[in-house]
Design brief:
Oligomer: single chain
Strand content: under 5%
Distance between the termini: 22 Å
Radius of gyration: 22 Å
Number of helices: 16
Order of helices and strands: HHHHHHHHHHHHHHHH
Number of strands: 0
Number of domains: 2
Largest sheet: none
Shape: globular
Helix content: over 70%
């Protein structure tokens, strides 16, 4: 792996992730379209609710991707081949055990989910059929978080893209065969995902095959070393707390948005898709920061670390500026494509300037997240997320009282600014940590 940090190297890491992210919504569209051919509303709702519930449960373990990425990148930077292999073992075991726990606890988990989000009797029956099949691939789905993070740390994002394309392509093909060909209905969609996720795990293990030749992969005293497990647990728990708080901000945003009526709620939902596009686009460069900053931290090289942070952030800023311009110029047309309801179109246009500003105001938070994950300075990430969430919740109610839905958007953008500023203030300590580790 080359030591030189170049723009080409950053793009080599980032672009496959951006392309991979672009494939994610396609699967949801196909799932919906396939069950939509059954000619009934209930199957569409059942697949939608079932997928949301399982995704929310699996999302709890999303820390495994980020934590594995940062720790592995540092081990690579330190030329610690044995620890790189041991980290793969640890992440696979965490994923498989977590998935087995979800299978064992599926009944109370699903019951609790339907208490929080009740559905009609017909939709719930079909959704339970869907989840009852798909939950058996939970070990594969969560273990893949670890494999993905492990590959990212080695800058093998092309392999991550291949893995995503294989899983989504297989899922789509089996959807068509099982639902439209075999007439299996909603369970057919679940079986397609079940087979795609287990196949994805097998392919992921094949992509990691070089690690299986390293004896440290099966060096159980090292794999279960208490100090290393404690450090991995600390990193992962910090990321989980940060992610829960971030999710709480967005869930509360949707909740409070419903107070302004159906039209404004619908407009907010459409505009949030602009934020999703921004996140997907910047994610590639944040992931490049994870890999390159992590390797620099492992090498105990603050100069390398700073160049990695500047290069990736420069690309993140350029992409954010391009998105802001695109939203400014094409935003009204995008809104018109997303809805045919004229009242919703009109309201969405009123709030479109917030989407023009969001990429520029949020880029620091997105990029610094990647930088701090790579450096495994996750305590700072957690604490700054606590600060930004506290500012959001303190500001949102008085801002809404004065400015209505405008106040809701102002509070959300304020949370982005605060997270970026506070993480930026902690960045010098990150570089000092690289010096001190030497």
């Amino acid at each position: 792996m080359a030591d030189t940090l170049t723009h080409r190297r950053v793009l080599h890491i980032a672009l496959p992730v951006v392309i991979s992210n672009a494939t994610v919504p396609i699967l949801g569209v196909v799932d919906t379209a396939v069950v939509g051919q059954l000619g009934q509303a209930a199957p569409i709702g059942a697949v939608g609710i079932g997928a949301i519930i399982l995704t929310a449960i699996y999302w709890i373990f999303g820390f495994l991707r980020m934590g594995t990425s940062g720790l592995t990148a540092q081990a690579i930077g330190a030329s610690d081949t044995a620890e790189v292999a041991a980290l793969l073992s640890r992440s696979l075991m965490i994923g498989l055990v977590a998935g087995a726990a979800i299978i064992a606890l599926q009944w109370p988990l699903f019951a609790g989910a339907f208490l929080v989000s009740p559905a009609s009797a017909e939709v719930e029956i079909l959704a339970r059929q869907y989840m009852g099949v798909r939950v058996w691939s939970a070990p594969a789905a969560i273990a893949l978080y670890g494999i993905t993070g492990w590959l990212i740390a080695q800058e093998r994002t092309g392999a991550v893209l291949g893995l995503q394309v294989l899983m989504n392509g297989m899922n789509i093909g089996l959807d068509l065969i099982f639902v439209l060909g075999f007439d299996w209905g909603v369970p057919g969609v679940a079986w397609a995902t079940f087979l795609a996720e287990w196949s994805g795990l097998l392919f992921g293990l094949w992509l990691c095959r070089a690690a299986f030749a390293v004896t440290a992969l099966r060096d159980w005293p090292r794999v279960f070393d208490r100090a290393r497990l404690v450090n991995m647990g600390r990193v992962n728990s910090d990321i989980m707390i940060r992610s829960v708080l971030l999710q709480a901000v967005f869930v509360s945003f949707l909740f409070w948005g419903s107070d302004f009526g159906d039209v404004q709620l619908a407009a907010n939902q459409i505009l949030l898709q602009f934020l999703h596009v921004t996140a997907y686009a910047l994610d590639g460069f944040a992931i490049a920061a994870e890999a390159l900053v992590g390797q620099a931290m492992g090498r105990r090289d603050p100069g390398h670390l700073r160049r990695a942070a500047l290069l990736t952030s420069g690309w993140g800023l350029a992409v954010s500026a391009a998105l802001a311009l695109a939203f400014f110029g094409a935003g009204p047309a995008i809104i018109d494509i997303m809805t045919t309801a004229d009242p919703v179109r009109d309201v969405a246009r009123v709030y479109l300037p917030y989407m023009v500003a969001a990429p520029l105001l949020g880029v620091a938070a997105w990029m610094l997240d990647g930088i701090f994950i790579g450096a495994t300075r996750t305590t700072d990430m957690r604490n700054m997320m606590i600060v930004s969430a506290a500012v959001y919740f303190a500001a949102v109610i008085p801002l809404m009282a004065v400015f209505g839905n405008h106040g809701l958007w102002l509070a959300l953008l304020l949370s982005f600014i605060v997270r970026g500023l506070t993480l930026g203030l902690r960045y010098p300590a990150l570089e000092r940590a690289a010096v001190q580790s030497g």
